[in-house]
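Researcher: Please generate the 3D structure of the following complex. Treat every line as part of one assembly.
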Amino acid sequence: MSITSFTFVAFVFAALILYYLVPKRFQWIILLLASLVFYARYSEKCLLFVLVTAVTVWGAARVMQGLSDGRKAYLKAHKAEMSKEEKSAYKKKIRKQRKMVMLAALLLNLGILCVVKYFHFALAQINALISLTGGEGIADTYRLLVPLGISFYTFQAVGYLVDVYWENCKAEKNFFRMLLFVSFFPQVTQGPISDYEQLSGELFAEHSLSYDNYARGFQRMLWGFMKKMVLANLVAPYVQDVFANYSTYTGISAFIGALFYSVQIYADFSGYMDIMCGLCEMFGIHLTENFERPYFSKSIAEYWRRWHISLGAWFKRYIYFPIAMSNWSRQLAWKSRERFGQGISDVLPATIALVVVWLCTGLWHGASWGYVAWGLVNGLFIILSLWLEHIYAAWKKALRINESAWLWRAFQTVRTFILVTFIKVLPEVGTLSDGFGLWRQIFTEHTLPKTVDELLPALAANGTANFVVIMIMIVLLFVTSLMQRKMPIRDYFARVPLPGRLIIMACGFAVIIIFGVPAMASGGGFLYAQF
Amino acid sequence: MHSFRRILGVSAAFVLICLILTGSLAWAFIESEYAYDEDRTLRRSLAGQVDLLIAGASQPQRAIIPSMLDESLGTYSYNLGGGWMNLIGDYRLLETELERNPVKDVFLAVSYATLTRTEASDDYEGDTYIVPRLETMQDKADYVLRCVDYRGYVSLYEYYVQQGWAYMLSAIRGEPVHNVNYDYRGWRPVTTKDVSLAEDKVDQMHDSKPLDVDVRDENVKQLQDVLTLCRDHGAKVYLVVIPLSDQRMWRQSGWDTFLDYMQAFADENDVPLYDFNLLKNRWDLFNDKTSYCNDNHLSEEGAKVFTPVFAEIMGKAMAGEDVSAYFYDSYEQVKDMSPYAK
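Model: Done. Output below.
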């Protein structure tokens, strides 16, 4: 069931009607049924993968909770008769058991993710190594099923598992509630990756029908459809053409292709989020926000705090902090202080953690060297800014730069956007060398007459009207993003009288039908769904 | 309850505004002559004159030129063919034209898909083309409600709104918005394209895909209804098959099964069948380089060659002569003689 189809909209409204018709305590069951139907419509076989994740994570969490509760009860019952050492030994034993359970479930679920996602990539690397020694590679005749959204729901489930292990939250007793947490249809395909405490509070609460939730949710859905179906899909053909034939384009045309890719991926992914957040709002559920005007960031690090926020938060919580705050990391910092001084020891744990995080982030996005390089380049920029912070500060002081001046902030924003754009295209052009090839083309091929000759026809290849709509949508996106600095755009919209709002929304709907639907036929699915 | 009423009211208002906005675009297109086959006005203007009708989908529409046919047969013909036309569409158009014209003969073109296709498998494309061709609002509504699967409503709606927008843009830009050519009388000329198979693909593509030969009872019934309709109006029906490119036949297997079930249908319903894919001199007339606009359709050049030959053979058939000598007996024979077999 395509999210951009009338079938999906009809499905959502059917679920919505049932949701508010049943007694409130059963509302989550409607969500569970809807989620299972949604996933089964994609693939019944793949639903098994979701079930395996839900069963193992639920089971492991229950066992860990049982051990934890047993430990507390045991210690309470034997408080007086146990020595401090005995208590410590007992706690250690239980912690070890809990750790084993957590690791078993973690390995199983991450194992499934790794096998289905990285099998072909790993095999290709093994074959490359074998061919270096002159041997024959292993034939890659296997076609593995890749369940929809496996990277998203696995991370969400793993996050829950670790939270239970850390005793940040209690294990869910009801398996079906766990199944809903893993398979909740608005977020199973592309996130946001939510933590259990936050999402369960929303999913299992009783919600009353509210006009405000409905209206605001619907408006947001419509805006999301416009972003995805109209903007993302209309720029897609130009981007695809530039990426496929970058060597024939001039630097400016290739650069515009890269800029359009930034627009496409933002409109695509944030459009999806708007659709899903809007949909959930109609159900009275508030999902974690995944975007906060990321292209207005002033550094790469800030950009990653504002783009795909839930993934960044996940890596920070479950990988960055455990590494940066680990005992061995602190010992390393302590030892390096003696040898290299305070400055280096301060940033060393963070640097190690960042390298691991960005390597994982790259691999999470895709099984290719392009994504690995993409992750490491992002990490490199962030690490460099960490290491060179003092030098930057000295420069700024020497050059008397006023950091609060709008010109400086605008420079930082544009610089970050261009940097982000260059990094983004690296894995998307084809192979890693194609990615670098595009970079080279942008910087080296500058024939002005050729640019003039090729650019406008290429941009208007799918019709002048389409190009005009692209430009209007980009301006609209830019202006609304600027306006959001002061107040959410939907609050501005709420001030428009109802008839005006309805007419604007109807125009949006017509734009989707006229431009979005044909563009969907050529533009295809969501970019982030492949991750 | 207050929220519920408000949601219902505002939703209804939103749907209404959307319908007015998009519906007006759709309506502007449906009532126009923007698409080349929106021929209501043209057909109305010819009422009472037409004595020979050509019906079917896009193959006859592109292959048979009424003016050339008339020169040879001494008739006044009209080509009702239309893109992705289904049998219900054929029925509806024929019904109108048989009512208002002294039609004596109908050449009903059937293809490999006539008895096997479904609306859904064609993505309702045929329905989108047929509705604007129907005479009155009532006819159109009746067709949509009775003949279109509910899943096709979305396809129809999206198509008409998009076409309405294109129509409006053309009008604003001063581009032609009346695209029905009255001289062609339903024929649609299309530019030639070389559709021949590359040499290295010939062996690989041979019989690489079987033809869908699962005849649907529903389609058989619909075809019988068309025959009955024509006979009730005193018109004689001739089933004809329009030539496909050599490569199309070469690529697929199962053509003789199609011929067998089509011949069986013709025999059962006492209607003659002439399959022009089996023409013995087809390679003197057409070739994949210069006669087709794609795998399935003759181009303008192909039509200009085909129509006189078609007229000659059909003229003899209508006069009761035996024309079997013009044709091979099976597709296998044709494929054996195909340029790709050499």
